[in-house]
Amino acid sequence: MIAPELLEKYGALKKSFDKNEIIFEEGNLPTHYYQIISGQVKMSNYNDDGREFIQGIFYKEQSFGEPPLFLNQKYPANAIAVDDSEVLLLPKNNFLKLLEENPAISLKIIENLAQRLYYKSVMAAEMSTQEPEHRVLKLIDHGIAYFNFKKDANGYHINFTRQQIGDLTGLRVETVIRTIKALEKKGLLKIINRKVYR
User: SUPFAM superfamilies annotated for this entry (predicted)?
Assistant: First the structure.
């Protein structure tokens, strides 16, 4: 989102995280702006039963964890590397200075945060009122638009695991598997070599 060269000019450092390594923990105060160079990062927390709820999954060139940074509030979720990942970390004060001195980037950040807020509003309504098929399709269609899923001859490859779809929609994995099969029968999804396509 922000050119890596510009982030480095303001003092950003690259840091590598192993798969499943925690980048920051729920309850900590934010100290940095984070932008992914490679890999994937999820933000999630757990309910009292130990069930994970994924707040979001972030990919190459996306940033994560900004709202608490702007509000100086504690993180509401953990950030965890889904794969081996490389991330740029820019100290908070340097990040704020970068935004002050580059208004066009401030607008990009606002647009990005608005997109996430819109997604959360849509998914909150879906999770409280809609059937599993509708929830899964809504998530997938949003993913195509927002996560830049790759398109090939089979359609858009949906780069979420069944577990991630469940965690993002509030459904159990078994329900997700049944729902995807039902959507395939209706011709709304394709399953090719266990991969899901839209």
Answer: cAMP-binding domain-like (SSF51206), Winged helix' DNA-binding domain (SSF46785)
Write down the architecture of domain 130-197 according to CATH.
Orthogonal Bundle (1.10)
Q: Cβ(142)–Cβ(185) under 8 Å?
A: no
Tell me the per-residue pLDDT of 140-180, one tens digit each, with 9 for 90 and over: 988 888 776 889 999 999 988 898 898 888 888 999 999 99
pLDDT tens-digit map of 8-58: 999 999 999 999 999 999 999 999 999 999 999 999 988 788 888 888 899
Q: 83: closest CA among 40, 31, 119, 112?
A: 40
**Residues 143 and 59 sit within 8 Å (Cβ to Cβ):** no
The phi and psi torsions of 52 (rounded to 5 degrees) equal -80, 140
Global pTM value: 0.76
CATH code for the structural domain at 4-105: 2.60.120.10
Query: In which element (H, E) is residue 23 found?
Result: strand 22-24
Alpha helices in 56-161 (DSSP H): 66-71, 92-101, 103-129, 132-146
